[in-house]
Automatic annotation (TrEMBL), chain A:
InterPro entries according to UniProt: ARM-type_fold
Keywords tagged on the record: Membrane, Transmembrane, Transmembrane helix
Protein name per UniProt: HEAT repeat domain-containing protein
Domain of life from the UniProt record: Bacteria
Keyword Transmembrane: yes
UniProtKB/TrEMBL annotation, chain B:
Pfam families assigned to the protein according to its UniProt record, in alphabetical order: Glyco_trans_2_3 (PF13632), Glycos_transf_2 (PF00535)
Cross-referenced CDD domains: CESA_like
TM helices/strands, residue ranges: 12-34, 364-382, 389-410, 430-448
Superkingdom of the organism of origin: Bacteria
InterPro entries on file: Glyco_trans_2-like, Nucleotide-diphossugar_trans
Residues of the Glycosyltransferase 2-like domain: 61-200, 242-402
Protein name as catalogued: Glycosyltransferase
Organism this protein belongs to: Flavobacterium flabelliforme
Length: 367, 473
């Protein structure tokens, strides 16, 4: 009897446990061998790929430098430049090479400015790369669309506006984020008009990035944000509140005051903070009327506002909160009292010898 | 006859347990692959530089407890201060160190005592010499707190009291954070709009043999000692194939104490770190999750697979066993303390999936393995052993471990490809085949010792970790 036959007989005659265990072992054994070879191949392949990328990068960089120096003032594209464009066009048909070429172009574009940067843009257009990016916008996969929009943004292709805006309420937040960044990077404050059409949430991450782009702009002519402060999309309201704070939109104070009664507690909280920043004293009086009915966070924010907007007449109100159980409210009240009535503040030391209370008094006295 | 029936039943129980363990690992690996691909797509075009320069990005406090860290404290603090995130501070809690850590910090960073009004929301050991800040504007982000010794949890709780930030990153002081680590960790907190992100954990990588220059990771090397290599493989397996899947299932129970970012308000609301456990990192996450479930709030514990934090791992078996012993006790303590969550549908994924998995395949795995070895020994002594049965089990266990390690290594190559140097590939492969033999027996021993210590040696707390410091360029 052959070994093969005896092994087969052994398995056949074994119990179910042993059969299953050996079958699984055989399976793993069979899989481990190709996995080991694949691992070796993969490492080699990755190293080779790194070398190839570096090689192509070098090649494209030299093409691009030649391209930039072959231009003349008479023609948009000189004959020498056309030759280079034709050479690059051949590379763009392969997605692998196209990817490298685009990364080199972006790197170069970020390092230069003025006419040379415009020249790169011309190259991007005439080499057919722009068409590839536009085609990506109709792709089924979300990440292909997002990358397409990003590329169009990086090369300042304003003409793609109509196709990009279509993705305003795309189910994937990454696509929406790229659409938003495209709008603001290329159309600046005007680009923010997408907020009027936005039905999906604008995350804090998105907001920070948009504000980052706006911060870098030379022009600070902000659009009218009143409409966004009245938006049904609460994240748009949040964003508008941030704009109001950063760009000192005092003329929107009525709209922001109205938000003090917004259904969403975070909007109410943010509104208090912005009104505090804008020194809107009317807001203080409105909040004083029903402060105890508000959430704890709103109360703390209100007392921070009081620290900034206190008046002599507030003393009787403040005195009610110096023993508040909320640490922040207690500290804010005592801080204000110290300014409004130093004698009364000093006497508290004798009147209330509680060590924790004294710790706060002593700290405020010295700072 | 009866003996044979008992033997058969036991064999079937071991068999069912093993099959369930293998299947669970395979399912987790598959889910991890899906999540990793998704993560890579999502982050392939994120520009983290944009967020780090934004002044409206939320504030983060890095809290780092230090106990007798004099050897490396100055360098470690320098590394923490070199993060690229714009809105953060570093709170070093000197937890009653008996060495000259504080004096070194005072001298190097020009520290002076300051008056600091602290809201003591969590009770901790009192301050010793007080709170220090630097007179040098270059170190304005640094706060050093000198307090009486109370252990790691107590020190972290002091940090929670001191911090004025919305988020706190709790880390081990000797950890090396990459410069963009905070941007990457904060992203899920700011990005997810339909759930509240309560905590985020990152991947921990082993820094043994790596070169550090000016507090930054300069060169990644693969260590020479088998014990260190084995741990590298183990970490890759756990972080890339395990936690990634649990993150997708929103069932992550543990965030490594070496580096985790928390919503400070929730961490304080649940009472901060538990001082009575050695597994304070896992315990806090379970408690925060339990709290959110009880409040019926939608939440997520996020996970970032990028290698953001590098830490020194034990390079000898004594410290290795002591560390794993502590991990075992921490797991037992946490699962026991929160047993009401286990198998309780009220806690959804946490109760019916995460907890049972941790109970059966993390907490019970070494116990089942040990019982299996005992059972094997009894059968050998009583001459009732079926050698083919025993052999088939050992072969299956070994091959599956190697298979799983290879999958982890391939995932690592396809994603982060950290060990690029020529020759390392062969050593990685070799350790995949050797690890079940060189590290696993010690892990099993440490886990059994952990169980024994938990039940019979309640006084045992933290073991000692002798720091060598990272290799400097």
């Amino acid at each position: 009897m052959s070994i093969h036959q005896s092994l087969f007989n052994y398995i056949n005659e074994s119990s179910l446990i042993i059969q299953v265990t050996w079958i699984m072992s055989a399976f793993f054994m069979v899989v481990i061998i190709p996995l080991t070879f694949y691992f070796r191949y993969l490492r080699k392949h990755l190293r080779k790929q790194e070398r190839t990328v570096a090689l192509y990068e070098q090649k494209y960089e030299s093409y691009l430098i030649n391209y930039l120096y072959s231009g003349n003032e008479q023609e948009i594209i000189s004959p020498e430049q056309q030759v280079i464009i034709n050479q690059l066009k051949r590379s763009t048909s392969e997605s692998y090479k196209r990817k490298i070429l685009i990364s080199v172009l972006i790197k170069l574009k970020n390092e230069i400015s003025g006419e040379i940067a415009e020249s790169i843009q011309t190259l991007y257009f005439h080499s057919g790369l722009m068409q590839y990016a536009l085609n990506r916008l109709n792709h089924k996969k979300w990440y292909v669309i997002a990358k397409g929009i990003r590329e169009l943004k990086q090369f300042h292709i304003k003409e793609a506006y109509d196709q990009v805006i279509l993705h305003i309420n795309h189910p994937r937040r990454e696509v929406r984020k790229e659409m938003q960044l495209y709008m603001v990077s290329l159309f600046h404050f005007e680009g923010l008009k997408f907020l009027e059409l936005l039905e999906t949430p604008l995350s804090e991450w998105d907001q920070i990035q948009l504000l980052g782009v706006l911060e870098r702009l030379e022009s600070k002519n902000i659009s009218n944000i009143k409409l966004w402060l009245r938006s049904n999309n609460k994240s748009v309201v949040f964003f508008a509140l941030k704009l109001a704070k950063i760009y000192n939109q005092f003329e929107c104070k009525e709209e922001i005051i109205n938000l003090l009664n917004h259904i969403n507690k975070k909007v109410r909280l943010e509104s208090i903070q912005v009104l505090n920043y804008l020194d809107v004293i009317e807001a203080k009086e409105i909040l004083k009327e029903n402060i105890e009915k508000r959430t704890l966070e709103e109360q703390i924010a209100f007392f921070k506002m009081m620290e900034n907007l206190y008046e002599k007449s507030d003393e009787s109100f403040i005195i009610n909160f110096i023993h508040s159980e909320v640490f922040e409210i207690k500290v804010s009240s005592l801080k204000i009292l110290k300014i409004l009535n130093k004698d009364k503040f000093t006497k508290l030391k004798v009147e209330f010898p509680d060590p924790d209370f004294l710790k706060i008094i002593n700290f405020l006295e010295n700072n | 006859m009866i003996t044979q029936i008992i033997i058969d039943i036991i064999q079937y129980l071991f068999f069912i347990y093993s099959i369930c363990a293998i299947l669970s690992y395979l399912v987790l690996a598959t889910i991890s692959a899906i999540e990793t691909i998704e993560y890579k797509h999502k982050n392939s075009f994120v520009n983290y530089k944009e967020i780090m320069s934004s002044t409206i990005s939320p504030s983060i406090s890095i809290i780092a407890p230090a106990y007798n860290e004099s050897l490396n404290i100055v360098e470690n603090v320098r590394s923490l201060l070199s993060n690229h995130y714009v809105n953060y501070d570093v709170i070093i809690i000197n937890d009653g160190s008996k060495d000259d850590s504080l004096e070194k910090l005072i001298t190097v960073y020009n520290l002076v005592p300051v008056d600091y009004l602290m809201n003591e929301q969590i009770v901790t050991q009192p301050l010793r010499k007080g709170i220090y800040k630097s007179t040098n504007p270059a170190f304005e982000k640094l706060i050093v707190v000198d307090k009486e010794n109370g252990g790691k949890s107590d020190a972290l709780n002091m940090g929670l009291n001191i911090s004025n930030s919305k988020y706190v990153a709790c880390i081990d002081v000797d950890c090396l954070l990459l410069e963009d680590s905070l941007q990457k960790m904060i992203k899920p907190f700011l990005e997810i709009t339909d759930k509240k992100v309560i905590a985020a954990g990152g991947v921990i990588r082993i820094s043994n043999s790596c070169i550090v220059k000016d507090g930054k990771l300069h060169d990644v090397n693969f260590p020479k000692k088998l014990i260190e290599q084995g741990q590298i493989l183990e970490y890759i397996r756990a972080f890339l194939l395990g936690r990634m899947a649990w993150s997708r299932l929103n069932g992550l129970l543990v965030i490594s104490g070496a580096f985790g970012l928390f919503d400070k308000k929730i961490a304080i609301q649940v009472g901060g770190y538990d001082k009575n456990t050695v597994g304070e990192d896992m315990e806090l996450v379970v408690r925060m999750r339990g709290y959110m479930e009880e409040q019926n709030k939608k939440y997520k514990v996020a996970y970032i697979p990028d290698p953001l934090c590098w830490t020194e791992a034990p390079d000898n078996y004594k410290i290795f066993i002591s560390q794993r012993n502590r991990w075992t006790r921490g797991t037992i303590e946490t699962l026991k303390k929160h047993r009401k969550i286990g198998f309780n549908p009220k806690y959804k994924t946490l109760g019916v999936l995460s907890y049972p998995y941790w109970f059966f395949f993390e907490r019970m795995a070494p116990v089942v393995e040990f019982v299996g070895i005992l059972y094997f020994a009894i059968l050998v002594i009583s001459n009732k052993i079926r050698w083919d049965y025993a052999f088939s089990f050992i072969v299956l266990a070994y091959l599956f471990t190697v298979f799983f390690s290879l999958i982890a290594l391939i995932t690592e190559e396809l994603t982060y490809h950290q060990y690029k140097k020529k020759g390392t590939g062969f050593r990685l492969l070799l350790i995949a085949f050797l690890e079940p033999l060189v590290n696993h027996p010690f892990i099993l021993y440490a886990a059994i010792r952990g169980n024994i210590d938990y039940y019979f040696n309640k006084k045992k707390k933290w073991g000692e970790m002798t720091r060598k410091g990272m290799t400097k360029a």
